[in-house]
Write a structure and sequence with these properties.
232 residues, 9 helices, binds pyridoxal-5'-phosphate
C-alpha cells in the first residue's frame, strides 16, 4: 500500500469520526453510542485494507458476489462483515454463513431460510429489519406496520438475533425531510420497545445525511463516499 493511500484513508476516517463526534455533541449524545459502518461497495479490497490499517473494523457490502471476493482477499484482516443490500433467496446461505450482521431483512421467508442456514456453533446473525419509511414504491423494506410482526417472528427463530431497524429515506431536496423520516424511525423503534420488542439499533444516515440521522438517534451510520471517495 502506498503511503499516500494509507494517509488518505486515515484522514477520511478521522474526518468522518469528527463529523460523528460533532453531531453527537450537538445532540447531547455519547459518541460511543454511534458506530461507523464503512460501506465498501464499488471499491476494491485494497481500499478496505487501507481503512483497516487506519483502525476501522466494521464493513458493509450490498452485493453478495462482490462481498465474497473481498472477504477472500481480506481473510487475514479482523473485519466484522455486515450485509446491507437487497436479499435474493438464492443468496441467503452465503449471507448466513459469511456475515455477522444483516441490515436489510424485509421478509419472513428470508428470515426462515437464514435461520435454517446459519451454521451451528456460530453466534446468531444479528438482524435489522429494513423499513420503507418514505413509502417509496421502488424501495425495498417493510411498511412501518409490518415491522412489529416481523420482529416478533425473528425473535422466535433460532440462529437469528433481532437487534433493531434500518432505513434509507427517499432522497429529498429539503434537508428537513430526511430528519423527519429519521424521527419516524426513532418513534417506530420506541413504539416497538413499548410492545416488548426491544431492538435498540437504528441503522440510518449515509454520507450526505449523517448529522440529521445522529440527531434522531442513529446507532449505526453507513458511510461509503465520505470514506472511500466517489463510486465509479
Ligand atoms: C451505498 C450505500 C450506503 C453508503 O452511501 P454513501 O452515500 O456513499 O455514504 C449506505 N447504505 C446503503 C444501504 C448503501 O447501499
Amino acid at each position: 500500500m502506498s503511503i499516500d493511500k494509507a494517509m488518505e484513508a486515515a484522514a477520511r476516517l478521522a474526518l468522518t469520526h469528527g463529523r460523528i463526534e460533532r453531531a453527537c455533541q450537538d445532540a447531547g449524545r455519547d459518541p460511543a453510542t454511534v458506530r461507523l459502518l464503512a460501506v465498501g461497495k464499488g471499491h476494491p479490497a485494497a481500499a478496505i485494507r487501507a481503512l483497516v490499517a487506519a483502525g476501522q473494523r466494521a464493513f458493509g457490502e450490498s452485493w453478495v458476489q462482490e462481498a465474497v471476493a473481498k472477504q477472500v482477499a481480506l481473510a487475514d484482516c479482523a473485519i466484522e462483515w455486515h450485509f446491507i443490500g437487497p436479499i435474493q433467496s438464492n443468496k441467503t446461505r452465503i449471507i448466513a454463513e459469511r456475515f455477522a450482521w444483516l441490515h436489510s431483512l424485509a421478509s419472513l421467508a428470508h428470515a426462515e431460510r437464514l435461520a435454517r442456514q446459519r451454521p451451528e456453533g456460530t453466534p446468531p446473525l444479528k438482524v435489522l429489519i429494513q423499513v420503507n419509511i418514505s413509502g417509496e414504491k421502488t424501495k425495498s423494506g417493510v411498511s412501518a406496520e409490518a415491522a412489529a410482526p416481523l420482529a416478533r417472528a425473528v425473535c422466535a427463530l433460532p440462529g437469528l438475533e433481532w437487534r433493531g431497524l434500518m432505513a434509507i429515506p427517499a432522497p429529498a431536496r429539503d434537508p428537513g425531510a430526511a430528519r423527519k423520516a429519521f424521527a419516524r424511525m426513532r418513534m417506530l423503534r420506541d413504539a416497538l420497545a413499548a410492545e416488548g420488542l426491544a431492538g435498540e439499533e437504528l441503522s440510518m444516515g449515509m454520507s450526505d445525511d449523517l448529522e440529521p440521522a445522529v440527531a434522531e438517534g442513529a446507532t449505526w451510520v453507513r458511510i461509503g463516499t465520505a470514506l472511500f471517495g466517489p463510486r465509479k
